[in-house]
Amino acid sequence: MKSISLLLLSTFTALADFDWQTQSWPSQPATGLQALDQKPTERKLIIEGNKTPFAKDGKYHRVRVPVAALSKSGTLIVASEGRLGANPDHPPGTDRDWDHVLISRSTDMGKTWTTSIIDDGKNKLDVGALSICSDKKSGKLFVLAYAANQGGKVLIYQSSDDGLTWTQHHQSGTTFTGGPLQQAFRMRPTNGIQLSPLHGPSADIILPGVIGYSKNRMMGLLRYQNAQDAWTLTTTFENVTDPQLAGEMTVAELDGPQAGKLYFITRPESKIHGKMKSHLTHTLGTKPAPPEAWSDSAFSFKRCNQNLARYSFKEFHNKSRLIFSSTKNLTGKRLGGHISVSYNNGHTWKSRAIVSDQEQFGYSQILPLPDGTIAVIYEGQNAAGQATTALYFKRASMAWITQGADAGLVK
Question: What residue stretch is flagged as signal peptide (predicted)?
Fold first, then answer.
């Protein structure tokens, strides 16, 4: 096990477990983090690679594609790909390199991190991309991987002890297929969401992904049914007239007048819509409409995922907020990163840069933390300046994002 310890300039108080009925941590600590309205914390290294083969020195060629979730107890869990630089059929560190599946944990909201390998695949595993899901009602955690070099099998890892140990779920290896051609469902790097009490008592998990390739590309949803302890492919968005709109997806639950609906932002597979993204709203149990090109999107197009999350529900916290993270894509490169907030279920957004326009900001995840601050986990350069080799953590307040207009979840 590799261990990394970092100092974060704030205090932390132990929390009670997440309360499912109120959608909150009941003992949110009053940490005085309103000072963060001036600027976010300095970036904190989670883990990095060094562009040498893992077999040479036990360090990864690159560490990429983080997905993140909060456990029921408030632990930050980051799953990522430790790329070995060892596949003789492909250049080191590429998407078709061999990988270890890694878990990084922080029990103190980013102050310290530990990283462990949960699957080494006998050093010949190509996971493609990972997804992560947190069941804050039962405490279970799931990491799902599309095993590209194992016939498209879906590897499902689960933990019942806050991410300390992992086993394979009883459905691990199942190939989920859908669409007219019954092609395989592939996770793209994102986090699943757990349906709130606004959707009823089931507390099921929804995980978006892609079915098929090229002209047959579609969007789909896996659903984890809590009562049955089973994953099923439940919905296929048959957007065959415009398959390029099906790319890396991210989802959040809506509230207010649209309570019970899901909102998706997708990164189209190619730049057919210029700098546009696409989005759609969907009600579970109904026939999905195809995604629509987002002509007035505030977010740049780039072959790089983004992340959407619910910060608060109006029904539970008096104000409705969605948050979003994405590269700014300056000069066609993954430079600069912004985080954004919407108060109207994604129609309009207020954005602010979380890293400078000279800093690399690749695949990212955004999470509301128990004390109301916001965590961003993203790909960046290692200490030697080598691209897409390291994962970083930063923390900001809602007050900083909105320049003092919104204090966020504070007592």
Answer: 1-16
Q: Quick one: 55 exposed, middle or buried, by C-beta within 10 A (0-12, 13-18, 19+)?
A: exposed
345: closest CA among 219, 249, 260? 260
pLDDT tens, position by position, 205-244: 999 998 888 777 888 899 999 999 999 999 888 765 666 7
Please name the amino acid found at residue 239. Answer: N
Give the integer Cα–Cα distance in Å for 411 and 408: 9
134 touches 141 (CB < 8 A): yes
Report the Cα–Cα distance between both ends of the chain, in Å, rounded. 38
Strands 76-83 and 62-70, by their bridges, are: antiparallel
- Give the integer Cα–Cα distance in Å for 266 and 251: 9
C-alpha span between 207 and 249 (Å, rounded) = 9
Q: Tell me if 329 sits within 8 A of 301, measured CB to CB.
A: yes
Q: What is the pLDDT of residues 83-124, one digit of tens each?
A: 999 999 999 888 889 999 999 999 998 989 999 999 999 999
Helices (H), 205-267: none
pLDDT tens by residue, 196-215: 998 888 899 999 998 888 77
Q: How far is CA 139 from CA 63, 133, 177, in A?
A: 27, 11, 28
